[in-house]
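User: Structure tokens for both sequences below?

Assistant:
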Amino acid sequence: MNQENTVLCAASAYEEKFYLNEKFAALPDRIKDELKILAVLYTQKVGGILTMEFEPDGKLIFRTEAAEADFSYDEIGSVLEIKKIQTDHRELLEALEMYYKVFFLGEAYED
């Protein structure tokens, strides 16, 4: 059985828009705001589209893409910026993974 990833949020430099999956509307506003800031700042710095997704096992991943004709997209900068986000916001990202595992996958809470 092939399970698909669940999109948490996405931001696009092309459309200058941010999307938060309505399944995550119960997240505190502070968390939603922080996700928006992270995603929008990423697309402003690097360009392209950033999508944050949960894999079927609950791991949060970053997926990026750029239009073929987008010569301003910084591929190396993209990798560096994602690593910086993962380092600087490790606690937030780990908490989001735990939230997903408990409320969406039905796993027991681990402290």
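Moving on to the next sequence.
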Amino acid sequence: MLTITLIILLLTCVISFSAFSNEKVINDLIFYPTAITNHNQWYRFITCGFIHADFMHLAFNMYTFYLFGGMVEEAFTMIYGEMGKALYIIMYLTSLVVCLLPTYFAHRNNYYYRSLGASGAVSAVIFIGIFLNPTMGMGIFPIPFHIPAFIFGPLYLGISAYLAKKGHGNINHSAHIWGAVYGIVFLAVTSQFLTEFRPVGRFVEEVTNYFR
């Protein structure tokens, strides 16, 4: 069955592979703050999420998205009913925008800054998954054991915040953080107004039961 998750994954792979060998595709789609500031190319907030720096960057993001996306897409269908798939698409696309807003305001006049990849949106999907399944085991290769998701999440955010402050490497850690936060906020707000499901209360209940 061709799910929304698989459609996004396949589309991202096709566009990313085409960009690997075509610099014009990268230049046209990449997140380039000054092009947004000076030429109103707002579409770059979204298009940059469909291109990646190299095969490993693409593989890591899409593998992680595949692991969590199916679970979250199914949960959206259960929570929101007929609106579930549409809201899943809206969540993914808007998370690409929201996760980059702090980056844009920090670099809107920086002609040397460019960013690409779906990491912010993938973080949104991951943290929705964590919020819905807080006691599931999670780990990072090569650590040989798993820890509960509700512990893994804050650790991940803490490490990302530290690396963002240090300016470590060429990775946009800020996008990871804001994507994660936005994913949880999107779930909580839309559930509050559109359904009777209360994810915050369920999260607290599951974590509390874990220690009993």
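User: Anything stand out in the second?

Assistant: The mean pLDDT is 93.
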